[in-house]
Design goal:
The protein is mostly beta strands. The protein contains no helices and 8 strands. The protein is globular and about 45 Å long.
């Protein structure tokens, strides 16, 4: 198989620093956070506006890439399940997928609501969330 190189476009600034204390999903107490983009990607932020929802793709850099099966939500009472059937962060290619709401855009910084990613998590991409009316 061909290998591909991903280049982060920025990083997350968050109060979340401890993986074990981080919420598993955004609606489980995830704080607001900042997406901080490298200078060279500032033009790519044109068109992002407060009040909109976007898909954020991150690289879960502290994940275990050798994990192939987990007990969903860390509950040993649940059967082992392949990671491709879960949202577990530990997986061969630990790409995080987050739906976030934009609160503000200040230069190359984007303030978002309910992001469960840890501080300094690399940002891979941002895409508009498509809705039935778009």
């Amino acid at each position: 198989m061909t290998e591909h190189t991903l280049r982060p476009v920025g990083r997350v600034e968050s109060t979340l620093t401890d993986r074990t204390a981080a919420p598993r999903q955004p609606d489980e107490g995830a704080p607001d956070a900042w997406l901080v983009f490298d200078d060279r990607y500032a033009p790519a932020l044109d068109g992002l506006t407060p009040g909109t929802d976007v898909l954020l793709l991150t690289w879960l850099d502290r994940a275990d890439r050798d994990t192939l099966a987990v007990h969903p939500r860390g509950d040993a009472a649940r059967p082992l399940t392949g990671v491709f059937a879960t949202r577990a962060p530990d997986r061969p290619n630990p790409i995080g997928l987050h739906t976030v709401h934009i609160l503000a855009v200040e230069g190359r910084r984007v303030h978002v609501r309910n992001l469960e990613a840890l501080d300094a998590t690399p940002i891979l991409d941002v895409k508009p969330l498509l809705t039935p009316d778009r």
